[in-house]
């Protein structure tokens, strides 16, 4: 049995064991308070469907964009060991400059301002 198959079976067995232990040992004794949507004891005063500001979504999308950028650039130190490290650095510079230009554009347009 090779190492990949061993690790796959070990992780499958461990996750199955932990799931079964969780289902077996979990204490489930729900009461009326726990089953209610508001556990704090207060009745809801208004609707839960209030509209969000679009600025929250803009900040979330910008966070995801730059988080993905970091995830894509994480293997860059190992990519310099390739046969053409200049091309790797060129593509990295292009990606970073495009993202930086987009951020500057949003900043200039006022998309990152909270006060209106």
TrEMBL record:
Bilayer topology term: Multi-pass membrane protein
The protein's Enzyme Commission number: 7.1.1.2
Entry annotated with the keyword Amino-acid biosynthesis: no
NAD listed as a keyword: yes
Top-level EC class as recorded in UniProt: translocase
Signal sequence range: 1-26
Keyword annotations of the record: Electron transport, Membrane, Mitochondrion, NAD, Respiratory chain, Signal, Translocase, Transmembrane, Transmembrane helix, Transport, Ubiquinone
GO MF entries: NADH dehydrogenase (ubiquinone) activity
Gene3D superfamilies per the UniProt record, alphabetical: NADH:ubiquinone/plastoquinone oxidoreductase, chain 3
InterPro entries documented for this protein: NADH_UbQ/plastoQ_OxRdtase_su3, NDAH_ubi_oxred_su3_sf
Subcellular localization: Mitochondrion membrane
Primary localization: mitochondrion
Transmembrane segments: 52-74, 86-108
Substrates-to-products reaction catalysed: a ubiquinone + NADH + 5 H(+)(in) = a ubiquinol + NAD(+) + 4 H(+)(out)
One GO cellular component term: NADH dehydrogenase complex
Entry's family note: Belongs to the complex I subunit 3 family.
Function comment: Core subunit of the mitochondrial membrane respiratory chain NADH dehydrogenase (Complex I) which catalyzes electron transfer from NADH through the respiratory chain, using ubiquinone as an electron acceptor. Essential for the catalytic activity of complex I.
Protein name: NADH-ubiquinone oxidoreductase chain 3
Name of the coding gene: ND3
């Amino acid at each position: 049995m090779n190492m990949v198959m061993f690790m796959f079976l070990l992780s499958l067995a461990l996750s199955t064991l932990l799931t079964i232990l969780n289902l077996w040992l979990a204490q489930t004794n729900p009461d009326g308070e726990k089953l209610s949507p508001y556990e704090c004891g207060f009745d809801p005063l208004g609707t839960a469907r209030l509209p969000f500001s679009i600025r929250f979504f803009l900040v979330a999308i910008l966070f995801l964009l730059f988080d993905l950028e970091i995830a894509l650039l994480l293997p860059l130190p190992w990519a310099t060991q390739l046969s053409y490290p200049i091309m790797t650095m060129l593509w990295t510079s292009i990606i970073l400059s495009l993202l930086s230009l987009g951020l500057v554009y949003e900043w200039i347009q006022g998309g990152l301002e909270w006060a209106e």
